[in-house]
Amino acid sequence: MLRGYYTVASGMMTQQRRQDTLSNNIANAQTPGYKQDQAMIRAFPELLIKRLSKETLPTTRQFTLPTDQQLGSINTGVYVQETIADHQQGAIHETGISTDLALINGEFPDETGGLFFGVQNGDGTIGYTRNGNFTVDGAGFLTTNQGHYVLNQAGEPIFTDGQTFQVNNDGVMTLAEGQIPLHIAYAANVNELVKEDGDLFQTDGEALVDARTIAGVTYSIEQRFLETSNVDEAQTMTEMMQAYRLFETNQRVLQMYDQSMDIAVNQVGRIN
């Protein structure tokens, strides 16, 4: 019975973490370029149950031998192993704002490949995002709405000096002083990226390379357009209700265990 407590508790904790993940997806459903998270649920290893007993041999000395009988296996609960970002491209819609850029996927040499805008984090490292909802700050630099500098192909912040600019389909920005290629980063395996701050990704090791240097990579940049999040709100709400119902089911099982334990402790052993 005590093992049942732990099994049910693991189910409740798993559904709680799943609910947290789904809630975060819903909260970012209107965030441009946001990639929804999926909770990967795994089962703990099953345990083999045996009945231990003794068998008396029909001999003059009545020898006894330990024996065991295999009864079957029992599950020990579930857990959320990890959350994985779904990098499927969101819908593209027109905004009419010149600083909005949509990065549209083309063809990749790798099935798990993906493209990102390169931005500079507060600590100077390079981050990656699909959120092209950019703006020009007071100093004239092109930044994200979170204040991260948008980088050029050389990995440097882009200084616009407050001027209007045009961006062609190859991701080259044209200003009065000349042209500045944007840093369009390519990841051969998007599942190896670490998600941070909602729509920002990091690498565990070396920085991603510019997509223009990889053969077989095609893409398109659309100015005055944005990529929406890939969160399916209706499906996510359905999954949230499912997680809630499963949590309630585990809760009722836990209450039954508690009632059975109460009877075993306070009534079964009572001496009248």
From TrEMBL:
<comment type="similarity">
    <text>Belongs to the flagella basal body rod proteins family.</text>
</comment>
<dbReference type="InterPro" id="IPR053967">
    <property type="entry name" value="LlgE_F_G-like_D1"/>
</dbReference>
<dbReference type="GO" id="GO:0071978">
    <property type="term" value="P:bacterial-type flagellum-dependent swarming motility"/>
</dbReference>
<feature type="domain" description="Flagellar hook protein FlgE/F/G-like D1">
    <location>
        <begin position="113"/>
        <end position="174"/>
    </location>
</feature>
<keyword id="KW-0969">Cilium</keyword>
<keyword id="KW-0282">Flagellum</keyword>
<keyword id="KW-0966">Cell projection</keyword>
<dbReference type="InterPro" id="IPR001444">
    <property type="entry name" value="Flag_bb_rod_N"/>
</dbReference>
<dbReference type="Pfam" id="PF06429">
    <property type="entry name" value="Flg_bbr_C"/>
</dbReference>
<feature type="domain" description="Flagellar basal-body/hook protein C-terminal">
    <location>
        <begin position="223"/>
        <end position="266"/>
    </location>
</feature>
<dbReference type="GO" id="GO:0009425">
    <property type="term" value="C:bacterial-type flagellum basal body"/>
</dbReference>
<dbReference type="InterPro" id="IPR037925">
    <property type="entry name" value="FlgE/F/G-like"/>
</dbReference>
<keyword id="KW-0975">Bacterial flagellum</keyword>
<dbReference type="Pfam" id="PF22692">
    <property type="entry name" value="LlgE_F_G_D1"/>
</dbReference>
<protein>
    <submittedName>
        <fullName>Flagellar basal-body rod protein FlgG</fullName>
    </submittedName>
</protein>
<feature type="domain" description="Flagellar basal body rod protein N-terminal">
    <location>
        <begin position="6"/>
        <end position="35"/>
    </location>
</feature>
<dbReference type="InterPro" id="IPR020013">
    <property type="entry name" value="Flagellar_FlgE/F/G"/>
</dbReference>
<dbReference type="InterPro" id="IPR010930">
    <property type="entry name" value="Flg_bb/hook_C_dom"/>
</dbReference>
<dbReference type="Pfam" id="PF00460">
    <property type="entry name" value="Flg_bb_rod"/>
</dbReference>
